[in-house]
Design brief:
This protein has 16 helices and 19 strands. By secondary structure, it is of the alpha/beta class. It has 3 domains: 83 residues, Rossmann fold (3-Layer(aba) Sandwich), CATH 3.40.50.720; 194 residues, Mur-like, catalytic domain (UDP-N-acetylmuramoyl-L-alanine:D-glutamate ligase, 3-Layer(aba) Sandwich); 140 residues, Mur ligase, C-terminal domain (Protein-Tyrosine Phosphatase, Chain A, Alpha-Beta Complex). The strands form 3 sheets. The protein has a 9-stranded mixed beta sheet with strand order 6-7-5-8-9-10-11-12-13. The protein has a 6-stranded mixed beta sheet with strand order 14-15-19-16-17-18, with helices on both faces. It has a 4-stranded parallel beta sheet with strand order 3-2-1-4, with helices on both faces.
């Protein structure tokens, strides 16, 4: 729905999304009635100073806020479960598409969505394809409405929080990288989490590219396309899909029940420093968009994602702070399966039972020590002990590094891959990763 000039617009939350929406509506129409609600008095005062015509309400009076507004655009971080029938809520993604007609490529998933989105952005730059990257990473959506109309594609990384309230959002191509337990403190169950993610392709016009492993979980649609590193998963079933055979990426398409195969590119010719599954997804995206499979040479790892920080004597330090789920940490451990690992885990579980994660971790014989830090360190250490993993708890990363100085680190990798969110000790995973880097630098200086 487009906002009418006479409507009273409620903007709930003054993070990047909220501030962007205020600026968009009042720049477009200074007479628009805008009401903002937030918990932070300083944020409310600052936005009032910038736009004197708006009305501000503290969240303590949220019921009054609802009554004053014709529509309310909530921040994705706000859980609407207790409020869903109290206002006419409009999702930011739904609203954005009312102003922008450019084809949208939307990406979501529990692990890897930021990496895929960022690498696709670099590939489009390399091929000189006009595009913008916005949403969960990049520019806030409503800061780039005008520019979005002047490019070929809009790349949007979508979180489950952004998708949860969507009703009309219809991207041209939607990608689900994978789905594992995450954000269950918000969604309460895996079913609710899955349903939120599936809002990315709730309309038939959207082509959905997703892992073959989800084929029995997600309702069959004519526009579903699958990918898998396992040839047999796609080969043995009647579906369109992308898979790897003898090191090559192949596409299979069913035409009148006849299977047509096309070899697209060798995995080794995709010159990106990332997991093979990410290379497969990127090749599939380009092929679905009918774009050349031309890739830039990207050897540098993205920050906080299996990022090699330093090798000190024979010890390598790796920053994988972006790992906020057990699945991401297990993928990192698997990547270094032939190396002796000292693994640093911690953070908050976000409602996910991490005992099963520790059980899986115990099967990796290359993990010789687990150092647990932060609010849940005692519980993580207890589970490690149950599964015969050598482990110690520490209150924070500084104490963790004090312990590392006493360890035999020769010929080992110190892998910082927390498997939990950062909010017990840090503002975000970037701040957490930055602190790890600083501690590595000090460790090297003192070595």
């Amino acid at each position: 729905m487009k906002i009418c000039k006479k409507q009273k617009i409620g903007i709930w939350g003054l993070g990047k999304t909220g501030r962007s929406l205020v600026s968009f509506f009042l720049t477009k129409n200074p007479a628009q009635q805008v009401i903002v609600c937030d918990t932070n008095d300083e944020a409310l005062a600052a936005i009032k100073k910038q736009f004197s015509q708006i009305k501000t309400i503290h969240q303590n009076n949220v019921e009054e806020f609802f009554l004053l507004c014709d529509v309310v655009i909530p921040s994705p971080g706000i859980d609407l479960e207790q409020h869903k029938d109290k206002a006419n809520f409009v999702a930011e993604l739904d609203l954005f598409q009312q102003y922008v007609t450019t084809p949208i490529i939307a990406l979501t998933g529990s692990v890897g969505k930021t990496t895929i989105t960022t690498m696709l952005h670099h590939i489009f730059d390399h091929q000189q394809i006009p595009h913008i990257i916005a949403g969960n990473i990049g520019t806030p959506l409503f800061d780039c409405v005008d520019r979005a109309q002047q490019v070929d594609f809009v790349l949007i990384e979508c979180s489950s929080f952004q998708l949860e309230q969507c009703k009309t959002f219809t991207p041209h191509l939607a990608i689900i990288t994978n789905l594992v337990e995450n954000h269950l403190d918000r969604h309460k169950s895996m079913e609710n989490y899955l349903n939120a993610k599936l809002k990315i392709a709730q309309h038939d016009q959207t082509t959905l590219l997703m892992p073959y492993a989800l084929r029995t979980t997600i309702e069959k649609r004519e526009n579903n396309v699958y990918f898998s590193l396992q040839e047999s998963e796609v080969q043995n079933n009647n579906c369109d899909g992308y898979f790897v055979k003898n090191g090559d990426v192949l596409c299979r398409k069913l035409v009148n029940e006849k299977k047509n195969y096309q070899t697209l590119i060798a995995l080794q010719d995709i010159s990106l420093n990332t997991f093979d599954i990410n290379k497969l997804i990127l090749a599939a995206i380009l092929h679905k968009l009918q774009l050349p499979l031309h890739f830039p040479i990207i050897t540098k790892q993205l920050p906080h994602r299996n990022e090699v920080i330093a090798t000190i004597d024979s010890t390598t330090f790796i920053n994988d702070s972006k790992s906020t789920t057990p699945a991401a940490t297990l993928a990192a451990v698997e990547k270094y399966h032939d190396k002796k690992l000292i693994l640093i885990i911690g953070g908050l579980s976000k409602g996910v039972d991490r005992k099963d994660f520790i059980k899986q971790l115990s099967t990796y014989k290359n993990v010789i020590n687990v150092i647990c830090f932060g609010a849940e360190a005692p519980q993580l250490t207890q589970w490690c002990n149950e599964y015969k993993l050598k482990a110690q708890p520490y209150v924070d990363l500084l104490n963790t590094f004090n312990q590392l100085k006493k360890c035999n680190l020769q010929e080992k990798i110190v892998l910082f891959s927390p498997a939990g969110s950062s909010f017990d000790l840090y503002k975000n995973f970037e701040q957490r990763g930055k602190h790890f880097k600083e501690l590595v630098a000090k460790f090297e200086k003192d070595y």
